[in-house]
Amino acid sequence: MNLNELQRKLLAAGRSNPPSDTVPYGFQTRVMARLRSQALPDGWTGWARGLWRAAVPCLGIMLLIGAWSYLATPTPTSVDLSQDFENTVLAAANQQASDSIW
Amino acid sequence: MRVGALDVDIGGFNLFNRLRSFCILAAMEPTEAELIAAVLKGDAASFEPLVEKYSPRVFATARRYARRESEVEDIVQEVWLKAFQKLASFRGEAPFEHWLMRLAVRTCYDFLRGHQRNRETTFSEITEAEGDWLERFALQPESAPENADAARQLIERVLEQLSPAARLVITLLEIEDRSVKEIAKLTGWSVPLVKVRAFRARAEMRKILAKIAKEKYL
Q1: Quick one: which of B67, B98, B102 has its CA closest to B82?
Q2: Which residue of A has its CA nearest to B80?
Q3: In this structure, which CATH number among 1.10.287.130, 1.10.1740.10, 1.20.58.100, 1.10.510.10 belongs to the domain B31-117?
């Protein structure tokens, strides 16, 4: 069987048979009813959707950075938190005192 | 009858007045751009004339890819919903119809991809008329008419067997006689990709035809 000729004939048959463009009764009414039920998204809706979508990746990134900073922090030399706090707060004063000695 | 003054009065029928009122009415009718602008401002009712005007075209396109009328209606409804939701992305550089048809073709392609599991796998369901047409073709190719119903049914059956991309490209290129550039615009594929897919689609179609011949004659 000549397959090329069969292909040509069948494609010609397809061309000679354009589909109907009939619109079913009441179709426009149904579509318009559906469209009216959904409001056209305005700019704020777009922003709100975008922010909601961004929330999950942001949360993930926050957790990753938190975990990384927690694990990457070198072990503190002093276990006394109050002493560390005092040193930090008085760092500027200590610096001034050491400068005045020299 | 005063033809010179463009006032043709035949039996009380004033042609000029009718023409003038038609022109006034036509001028009063909002243009597509005005309708689209109104929809974007929140007047959903302005979308209705567009739905009414272009639905026949969208239905004809959808019927090329879906056989059941319920599926066709679903596709067209989805096209209009997408058109309404994405209307802000229509820049008005090309006619609205072109933009809409791109949307329709892409929705049909999505439909084909979503339903590719439902494709038939054998040709055991070939009707008697289709079998007769094939036999006639095998004996004397010229005697098998292209406009026969059996040939039309057979090509539909063959198209249903093709992969979604092959079916889309064969329909647009061979059946709707569109150019490669047009297909690229409609589908969003590049021109080389359309050419590659067209080549593969023809090969896929020949393979299916070979399978039919084998099933029928072996």
Answers
A1: B102
A2: A31
A3: 1.10.1740.10
